[in-house]
Design goal:
Blueprint: E1 30-31, H1 34-43, E2 47-54, E3 60-72, H2 87-98, E4 103-108, H3 113-121, E5 124-138, E6 146-160, H4 164-178, H5 191-196, E7 198-212, E8 233-236, H6 258-277, H7 282-292
Antiparallel strand pairs: 1-7, 2-3, 2-5, 3-4, 4-7, 5-6, 5-8, 6-7
Length: 293
């Protein structure tokens, strides 16, 4: 999980440090290994894609769009199995993308400015950010408050995918990103739908992640202050998938099996991580003992 790998420096199995991706503030929270960066993208439903366009006055204008993003490594000689029912194979595919070089795939619409910009230029530079908030950190003083979080920043070149096989691969990944093993649990995608969908591939130039996964951290004795009613600690924050609400098209069909298994497992994982990283470390516990004496 993020926050448990070796931070503060480029990993041998990760992205090289450049001027673009080097963490400069709280360097000890920086990570450059593939797993940490890729797992943050995998953990969030929405990522933000920043790019520039030339406006009607001829000026460069920054843009930022929320999109669905997923990591992938397309290999025409090793296609994804159409049936996601094999859990072991599904996990193997997921793990392979987390632990090695990969591309980032984005789903967009032909009417979007991002699509139009790539269509016009063939390729554009983008910056993709993904964020998960895992807790609100409440400190003794206002300037010590913080968040537990996982964030990744990816710099790369975005192009449109024209190969039907790779587009199908990306749609497969994007569907399963929304709901685990959902691709083969639905009706197959039609050729006309495949043609209408717009998918972009981002070749990654560099990337990094930043993670805070702790309680209130180090503090000086004088920061405790004189007030005795100030509570300090972490309020865990985690995303919860609620009870499924049916469409009513087929009332007799219930959300069991794949849907319920995915919902329960994801909720447990989100809650478990947020609560676990909120726990005080041994160093923090010793500091508390010193203050209380």
């Amino acid at each position: 999980m993020p926050g448990e790998t070796n931070g503060n420096g480029a990993a041998p199995d990760g992205y090289p440090q450049t001027k673009l991706n080097t963490i400069r503030i709280y360097k000890q929270r920086g990570y450059y290994d593939y797993r940490t960066v890729h797992s943050i993208v995998a953990a969030t439903f929405v990522s933000h894609v920043a790019f520039t366009i030339t406006d009607e006055d001829g000026e460069l204008t920054p843009m930022n769009m929320p999109l669905t993003a997923v990591m992938g490594r397309y290999d025409p000689n090793d296609p994804l199995p159409e049936d996601d029912g094999d859990e072991a194979e599904y996990i193997r595919q997921q793990e392979a993308v987390l632990d090695g070089p990969a591309d980032l795939y984005l789903h967009t619409n032909a009417a979007s400015l991002l699509y139009k910009s790539i269509k016009e230029k063939g390729s554009i530079r983008v910056c993709v950010t993904s964020t998960k908030v895992d807790g609100v950190v409440l400190f003794f003083t206002p300037n010590g408050h913080s968040l537990n979080y996982r964030s990744s920043i990816i710099h790369g070149d975005a192009t449109l995918i024209t190969d039907p096989a790779e587009k199908r691969y990306a749609m497969h990944l994007l569907t399963n990103h929304m709901s685990r093993r959902r691709w083969s649990a639905t009706n197959p995608v039609t050729p006309s739908a495949l043609k209408a969908v717009q998918v972009m591939r981002v070749r990654i130039r560099c990337a990094s992640a930043k993670v805070r996964a702790a309680n209130i951290g180090d503090f000086e004795r004088e920061q405790v202050g004189e007030r005795e009613d100030v509570w300090t600690g972490v309020v865990p924050v985690y995303e919860v998938l609620g009870e499924p609400v049916g469409s009513g098209v087929f009332p007799e069909r219930t959300a069991e099996g794949q849907v319920e298994e995915w919902r329960v497992a994801r909720n447990e994982r989100e809650k478990g991580y947020a609560e676990r990283v909120a726990q005080p470390s041994e160093v923090e516990l010793k500091m508390r003992e010193m203050v209380s004496q």
